[in-house]
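Ticket #4471: complex job returned nothing on first submit. Input attached below:
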Amino acid sequence: MTGDGKRVTIAAIAHEAGVSVPTVSRVLNGRADVAPQTRELVERLLKQHGYRRRASRQQAGKAGLIDLVFKDLDSPWALELIRGVEDVAHAAGVGTVVSAVHRRSAATRQWLQNLRTRASDGVIFVTSELTTTIHAELHRLNIPMVVVDPAGGADLDVPTIGATNWAGGLSATEHLTSLGHRRIGLVAGPKHMLCSRARLDGYRAALEAAGADVDDALVRTGDFLHASGFAGGLALLDLPRPPTAIFASSDTMALGVIEAARRRGLRVPDDLSVVGFDDLPESCWASPPLTTVRQPLADMGGLAARTTLRLAQGLPIETPRVELATELVVRDSTTRPAG
Amino acid sequence: MTGDGKRVTIAAIAHEAGVSVPTVSRVLNGRADVAPQTRELVERLLKQHGYRRRASRQQAGKAGLIDLVFKDLDSPWALELIRGVEDVAHAAGVGTVVSAVHRRSAATRQWLQNLRTRASDGVIFVTSELTTTIHAELHRLNIPMVVVDPAGGADLDVPTIGATNWAGGLSATEHLTSLGHRRIGLVAGPKHMLCSRARLDGYRAALEAAGADVDDALVRTGDFLHASGFAGGLALLDLPRPPTAIFASSDTMALGVIEAARRRGLRVPDDLSVVGFDDLPESCWASPPLTTVRQPLADMGGLAARTTLRLAQGLPIETPRVELATELVVRDSTTRPAG
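Support reply: We reran it on our side without changes. The output follows.
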């Protein structure tokens, strides 16, 4: 496993594997646009010859920094991700530089400028919109990148880390059907985000499996923020045949649904059961404490940091796309339907 | 204002001011242990001669980084401070390295080790316990430091930034007395923290001014976290003569009090008024939305960043101790007492 002692080149690996040099580069950079069997072959050869990226080996640990880039720092789950990344990076002797790029005009340009000045061992993006400018520039600077929780889709050729959103939507809804609910509302996330779509599909699959109402009138679309949960909750509760339970696609929207119930004089869970998604610290602090689907945000951050550090050292990564498991956490906001 | 063109030394300034060289250094480093009139004189002379710290001028912008160091990354107000620091630093072309030191054994040593490897233009601590090790080492490395929201007291000889805790405790309690409450409970913060003591004193001052009950049985001590607010709330509600309103010294404790009321079958605000402290985003998401005292956390972070960057450039700062104003934010968790 320690190689043959001689320095092997990418060209030699490409020749032996019968693929092009750019293909070997793509495998080394953890890109997704390589066929699985090709990746496997190339990685086996890289390992066999003890290959390490030259540039990366020189760079690794030089900057002693990784960048964690958010669109905005306005969601409580940002802190969970920071915690996960910092924990792994700190232990590896690496500092975590936290930035927000989309709140200000020209902020992305400024961030790239800052990055050029001080260098970085790798970049973790927590944003769906990885602009082509950033993408091209990081490739040019030979800085590895990883994307956490992408909503944009499969066209990214960088490693991505997400959660099992479909399974989470399924388990939230199954919990409600198992309690006896048959009319279950959904406040979904934005339609263009894949994670929203996956949670919606999990919700529908559970309803169909239980023979419960599949009714488009029971689905409202929000933006993951509190106000949209409140509005969606009111709209659902004001239906001629309102639901007895509501699944909200984020915890903050679920808190909005609880407030909507209070405004309509309904008690949670006696008159309305509510399930959230995320398991932010806030969900324990709700009144009543919120039943929710745990998204392992700190673990996702930790894995993103480990993946980035591996790429910075020129080591291969397991797979370019990882989904960590979600888990139902039952607290006090759900019970059997009244009557 | 541009000086006399010749490079003036610290020794010359000290001679002219009739003070020692270390005293001039203390002024330059923003330390608190200098008499106000001495500081004023030294700063006037520094300005008059156009003095800039040599080492700092060379270093400024070299690292392109400031460090923001938390004890733990487990409180939602950490994110508010990160947001404030990042906003100012990012605009100045400086990256914000976020670390947590007290969760792990040896984590402080590791952080200092990381800092030595990669350098930093300045350090902002968000922790009461600035260990002598850190303090001595940063002085040795000539890295300026600023402390946000210190609870330890006035023996710190570095610039500190806090909030007007006494005035905040006063306004929270005045709000309740003005609504007609006369029996007002308090869930206080930890006794050893100055901010807790200041809020407690503000509470007592408002009670006395209004001729309301000053009763030690109405005061419970928590640790700013949810569980202690819940426990303190239950203890107060179970008193033979329970309060009609409770002021909690943090928002997360106030959410615990709301949950305690729900457990006792009481409605907020009809049966019990609740006021928090902090105005975290979470306080808008409570059910009902929380009346609270706004602590300008993002502004405090921004000021800490500006102060750190000024010190890194060898510029004088206004004052070594700043308290930013708190502000009462009235939402739906408070009303007149029943009956």
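The longest strand of chain A covers residues 65-70. Closing as resolved unless it happens again.
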